[in-house]
Amino acid sequence: MLSVVTGPSRSGKSEWAEQLALQSQLAVTYIATAQMNLEDPEWCDRIALHQQRRPADWQTLNIQAELATILTQASDRDCLLVDSLGTWVAAFLEDSEADWSQRSETLLQSLQNCLATVIIVAEETGWGVVPAYPLGRQFRDRLGSLTRAISGQADQVFLAVAGYALDLKLLGVMIPSTRL
C-alpha cells in the first residue's frame, strides 16, 4: 500500500499522514528527511512539534540518500512514514540532471518493489509565483514531477487543505503524462 499526502504549508499534511500510519496497525518507522540545524531555532521548533506528536513506540530514522535502500529492506509488517519528500529533494539539488534522473528512478523503482505500507508527505510548491531564482525553479520542478510520478503509482493520494484531507483518487481523474 502506497499513500501520498500532499498540500501547502500548515495544511495538516503531516497530521493526516500520522493518522494513516496509526490506522495501519503496523509497526511504524517515521523517516525524517529534514536535517536539524541548531543555528535555526524556528526550524528546530518545527521539528520538535513533529516529534512531540509521534507515539513513543514509533521508530525514527533521520536519512537522506538511504531512502531507496530503506524502502527495499522493509517488510510487509512495516509502515514507513516519509516526512517529507520536499526536504529529500532539496538535499540533492546540486545533482546533475542525469544524476537526479537516476536517483528519482531508483526511488520510484524501490517504491514499486517495497513490501511495506508507505505513506509519503509531499509539499505542493507550485501554487504560488514562479520562483525568481533558477535553484528555486529547479526545486519546484523536481518536487512537482516526482510527486506526480509517485502519485501515479500510489493506491491513495490525499490533498490536505485547511485541515481537511481530500481523497484525490476518489474525487479526481488522473491527467495523462505527456512528455515532449
UniProtKB/TrEMBL annotation:
Keywords from the named record: ATP-binding, Cobalamin biosynthesis, GTP-binding, Kinase, Nucleotide-binding, Transferase
Class of the enzyme per the UniProt entry, highest EC level: transferase
GO molecular function: adenosylcobinamide kinase activity; ATP binding; cobinamide phosphate guanylyltransferase activity; GTP binding
One GO term of the biological process aspect: cobalamin biosynthetic process
Coiled coil region boundaries: none
Keyword field contains Kinase: yes
Record EC number: 2.7.1.156, 2.7.7.62
Positions contributing to GTP binding: 7-14, 32-34, 83
Family of the protein in this entry: Belongs to the CobU/CobP family.
NCBIfam families on file: PRK05800.1
Annotated function: Catalyzes ATP-dependent phosphorylation of adenosylcobinamide and addition of GMP to adenosylcobinamide phosphate.
Official protein name in the record: Adenosylcobinamide kinase
Organism: Synechococcus elongatus (strain ATCC 33912 / PCC 7942 / FACHB-805) (Anacystis nidulans R2)
